[in-house]
Amino acid sequence: MHLATATSLLLAAAACVDAVRTIIPKTSFDSQSNFDADWSYNYPWGTDHNGGARMDKGQVKFSNGMLTLTAKKVTGQPDATHGGNKIKINYLSGAISAKEHFTVARGGGYDFTGEFKATTTKGTWPAFWLTAVNGWPPEIDMAEWKGSGKISFNTFNTSSSLSWKDVTYSNPDQFHSIKCEVRDINQKDVSVKFYMDGNLVTTQVGGSYFGKPLYLIVNLQMEGSSGSPGPSGDTQYQVRNLEVVSYNP
To answer: Is-cis flag, bond preceding 138, omega within 30?
Structure first.
């Protein structure tokens, strides 16, 4: 009986180990070939979204494990359109999106981690986020900086029903570690735990997120919700050691 129990425990442990898989390794910013294996340029839907920057491949650089997105002031760009409204484009900037879609399975989930150097200057809007492949929401803002001196952690259940936590973002000229743990709760909802510099900041719930595929995006948007006018000079957003680990069975 004891032998059977021990064997069962060992098999269960082995199954858990087998379920842990690195989806995006920390080396994805080491070279063009590594990048191309895991990432695409721009948003999954194109170059424009909800701010005053248009994404451009030329504003994305990576080497030695470091991703650098640079926003530069421009003129003469055609307006963007979002939600039926025209948005003036004042910058070219950078965005990348993962080729993999992320869907929480029964008893599973993901860890999204990285180290980020993000500005909090008015008019700058760096982000590290997940959003729905089909419709909207879900959306999880794993880290978002909106020109206020703070970092935001948000989970949208509808446009008017969301959980959020804003905390002071000290030393924006230094790298800070971010981790987001997304886990199945009951085959309907998911728990979302947000960490900064190794400390748990807040835990939120994504209602009916289970089984819904998500895009992963890293981008430097400008103006919009971060205020305007934005900076007249270049703005950089840097990321290193970005990793995604799956715990889906």
So the answer is: yes
Distance of CA 245 to the CA centre of its chain: 14
- Tokens (6 digits) for 199: 């400390």
Interstrand relation of 53-55 and 91-93 (parallel, antiparallel or unpaired): parallel
Active site residue 144: yes
Strand partners, 97: 40, 217
For the chain, the average pLDDT equals: 93
Selecting among 100, 115, 144, 223, the annotated active-site residue is 144
Give backbone dihedrals phi and psi of 120, rounded to 5 degrees, phi first.
-120, 20
| Cα distances (Å, whole numbers) of residue 206 to 67, 192, 246 | 29, 7, 18
Quick check: is 243 catalytic?
no
Asked if 59 contacts 70 with a C-beta cutoff of 8 angstroms, the reply is: yes
pTM, whole model, 2 decimals? 0.93
Q: What is the pLDDT of residues 46-64, one digit of tens each?
A: 999 999 999 999 999 998 9
18 pLDDT tier (thresholds 50, 70, 90) = low
